[in-house]
Design brief:
two-stranded parallel sheet; 264 residues; 27% strand; Carbonic Anhydrase II
Length: 264
């Protein structure tokens, strides 16, 4: 597995402020909005003249959205069979809060949960949802996708993606949905114990691995992606409730793989 390079301060700020790691505080959201207002930049979105195809021209800091060669999401089709190590996940802490930041529903995590990659600990910051899915698997889209976003102290990023298919009701999603409707950009208390992982992530955790990007501006690259092969289930009503709370389709279209190695 390739060693990834340190992201810029802009990229690290973005992972804590946008849909691939959404705004954790009202103060930071206000600061971001003020900056955009001052510089007359339109805030990015998912439709109209701020839709994904326009992100690269909304702000010069977003140039990778249109110029990058390892962008996410993608249609995940394996190109290389290798002996991938099991995911080294240690999530003992649980969650602390939930927020609808205008781009997604995000669950913020207490400090101390980690994913270890090549001996280096990436701390789980939050997980959030896209409906429908951003990544596809072998040409197949899913009605819901969760992203578990991790970061090292020096700004390297990793995302575990979990697909949801329509099926049996998911207990953890029920607890999230019971907090709806959420006041935009205002955190609400939401506590899961450490066992939440067992119903959000599927028990079988074989995965695809590739290098990609943030799926939101500034679309910074050198992000380690782990897409789980086995989808989790959610009921039709749960998927509809999540979509209603988010209020839109919040999926960036799949991007060109450009000859990337996709391991399985």
């Amino acid at each position: 597995m390739r060693k990834i390079t340190t992201l810029t301060n802009i990229a690290l700020a973005s992972i804590l402020l946008t849909a691939c790691a959404e705004q954790p505080t009202v103060k930071e959201e206000a600061t971001t909005n003020t900056k955009h207002a001052t510089t007359h930049h339109k805030h990015w979105g998912y439709s109209g003249d701020v839709a994904p195809e326009h992100w690269g021209s909304l702000d010069n800091k977003f140039h990778m959205c249109s110029e990058g060669k390892e962008q996410s999401p993608i249609d995940v089709v394996a190109t290389k069979d290798v002996e991938l190590a099991p995911l080294s996940i240690n999530y003992p802490q649980g969650s602390k809060s939930i927020i609808n930041n205008g781009h997604t529903v995000q669950v913020n995590i207490k400090g101390g949960d980690t994913l270890t990659i090549n001996g280096e600990a990436y701390e789980l910051k939050q997980f959030h949802f896209h409906t429908p899915s951003e990544n596809h698997i072998n040409g197949k889209s899913f009605p819901l996708e969760a992203h578990f976003v991790h970061a090292t102290k020096d700004g390297k990023l990793a995302v575990i993606a979990v697909m949801f298919k329509e099926g049996t009701e998911n207990p953890t999603l029920n607890k999230i949905i019971k907090s709806f409707p959420l006041e935009k950009n205002k955190e609400a208390k939401l506590e899961f114990d450490k066992d939440y992982l067992d119903v959000v992530m599927p028990p079988k955790r074989d995965y695809y691995h590739f290098m990609g990007s943030l799926t939101t501006p500034p679309c910074s690259e050198q992000v380690n992606w782990f897409v789980l092969k086995q989808p989790q289930t959610a009921s039709k009503e749960q998927i509809a409730a999540m979509h209603k709370e988010i209020g839109m389709n919040n999926n960036r279209p799949v991007q060109a793989t450009n000859g990337r190695v996709i391991e399985q």
